[in-house]
Design a protein that fits this description.
- About 15% of the residues lie in helices and about 30% in strands.
- By secondary structure, it is of the alpha/beta class.
- It has one domain: Hexapeptide repeat proteins (UDP N-Acetylglucosamine Acyltransferase, domain 1, 3 Solenoid), CATH 2.160.10.
- The radius of gyration is 17 Å and the shape is globular.
- It comes from Nitrogeniibacter mangrovi.
Length: about 200
């Protein structure tokens, strides 16, 4: 994978983490155990420290960066959706950041809080634990239910399982030229899309 040292600081990746070869890590980046870092994620620790704590995931096309001297942190079991941008902020334990959301300088996302897809969290905003924020700029919408937090935890668990699957079976290959008869599908028990969860 593209890992780069700058000013004598090089990224640190726990052996039990999985970082895709097409992710880019620069400088003061710390990736903890059981983390998953997807293709095209950029973790740029050339100004401030970038930290993914144990069991967190950073999905495709995400950016983590910060201003000089500031840490950008995703705490344990944090879940960062595709295309999100985190800049000099802190995402609390077991929190979820939706796809294409932007979290700005010194914002803090509380434990088990949700940031809706495409939300813009202003600099310095403090999102309360177990609450949903949405909008541009983001505003607190409501408190989350236990069922919603359990749904999020199931989603994070499958990413933690994906870390193990990637470490054991992901490898470059030559594609087939035609689909084989009876091609099997990947199967996951008990996992619901957001739409299915809302209907349940």
């Amino acid at each position: 994978m593209p890992c780069y040292e700058i000013d004598g600081l090089r990224p640190v990746i726990d052996p039990d983490a999985y970082v895709h070869p097409d992710a880019v890590l620069i400088g003061d980046v710390i990736v903890g155990p059981r983390c998953y870092v997807a293709p095209l994620a950029s973790l740029r620790g050339d100004f401030g420290r970038i930290v993914l704590e144990a069991g967190s995931n950073l999905q495709d096309g995400c950016v983590m960066h910060g201003y000089p001297g500031a840490d950008t942190v995703v705490e344990e079991d944090g879940h960062i959706g595709h295309g999100a941008v985190l800049h000099s902020c802190r995402v609390g334990r077991n929190a979820l950041v939706g796809m294409n959301a932007v979290i700005m300088d010194n914002a803090v996302i509380g434990e088990a809080a949700f940031v809706a897809a495409c939300a813009f969290v202003k600099a310095g905003m403090q999102v309360p634990a177990r609450h949903l924020v949405a909008g541009m700029p983001a505003k607190v919408v409501r408190e989350l239910s236990d069922d919603e937090i359990a749904w999020k935890e199931d989603g994070t668990r499958i990413y933690q399982q994906l870390t193990g699957r990637c470490l054991t079976s992901l490898r470059a290959c030559t594609p087939l030229t035609a689909m084989e008869p009876g091609r099997r599908r990947l199967e996951f028990e008990g996992v619901m899309s957001l739409d299915d969860f809302k209907k349940s």
